[in-house]
Design brief:
Length: 295
């Protein structure tokens, strides 16, 4: 186990000695600053296990470094600017497994910032429950920066713009597999916000992501083919007849659905809770004149 304070716990530079650092187990903890810095062509960091946690950024990789994550966890890191788990510029990142979770970055990209034409490929692993501003989990913040997702998951992340992912102008995002689920945005882009980016969506799954709105929404339900009576109710009220056009709701509520077949069998109830409608206007709290102005 290794603990640091305002200085780096690990500082590896390939410009001096092209080297490889392997982390198999143990804990790297810190109270301030970045715990692990890797820079320079030829430097490689392989994470097979262990844990990196604490205040300040966890890992910085730059200038031709390769970071391979096979296991372990980067968790509960917090920063007052940029990303809390990984900051990468001009680097290569390969994520095969492991977990990057519960990190909080006050600035853009709660867990991960990719910049300077960094290329990240994700084949597995979890990037879950992180919090940030632009990109609750990750931001691609510069042109030419690329993220290829073939597997793995982004679940339960939250941000203002892009609950899980924010791709800036001319960033590159390719999704061939994997999952975005249950991510939330307080303003727009429940799963991701793509700002004039280059995007290819060829596979994977995007589901149950939400963003705050002041508009009514429509809920649709899918029933089995033997259903002859389709019903719904709101907030434990009376059951009403469901139409194929769905159920329109204009305020936060709980909606339940059930089906009945030709002989009277009743299905299990399916429930959906709407909690992303905000129709409360702001308030002007006070108006104060300039003390020297005439009255």
């Amino acid at each position: 186990n290794t603990t640091g304070s305002s200085t780096d716990v690990i500082n590896q530079s390939g410009s001096y000695v092209p080297s490889v650092v392997n982390l198999y187990n143990g804990h790297i903890k810190g109270s301030n600053g970045v715990r692990a810095v890797f820079q320079g062509a030829g430097a490689t960091f392989n994470m097979y296990g262990g844990e990196i946690t604490g205040n300040g950024g966890a890992i910085c990789v730059s200038k031709g470094v390769t970071f391979n994550m096979y296991g372990g966890i980067i968790t509960e890191n917090t920063t007052k600017n940029r990303s809390a788990a990984v900051y990468a510029t001009g680097a290569t990142i390969n994520m095969e497994g492991g977990e990057i979770s519960n990190n909080t970055g006050v600035g853009s990209g709660g867990a991960i910032t990719l910049s300077g034409k960094t290329v990240m490929t994700m084949n597995g692993g979890k990037i879950n429950y992180n919090k940030g501003s632009s990109g609750g989990a990750m931001i691609l913040e510069s042109a030419g920066t690329k993220f290829v997702m073939n597997g793995g998951e982004f679940v339960g992340n939250s941000g203002s713009y892009g609950g899980a992912l924010y791709v800036s102008i001319d960033g590159i995002f390719e999704m061939n597999g994997g999952l975005f689920a249950d991510n939330t945005a307080s303003k727009s882009g429940g799963a991701m916000l793509l700002q004039r980016a280059n995007v290819t969506l060829a596979g994977g799954e995007i589901k149950n992501n939400t963003a705050t709105t002041n508009q009514c929404i429509i809920l649709t339900a899918k029933f089995s083919d033997d259903t002859v009576v389709k019903q719904y109710r709101i907030n434990n009220g009376d059951w009403g007849m469901y139409s194929n056009g769905g159920v329109e709701v204009c305020e936060n509520c709980t909606v339940e659905f059930r089906g009945i077949d030709a002989v009277g069998n009743i299905s299990d109830i399916k429930t959906y809770t709407v909690n992303n409608i905000d129709i409360t206007p702001p308030e002007v709290l006070a108006v104060t004149p300039n003390s020297t102005a005439p009255t």
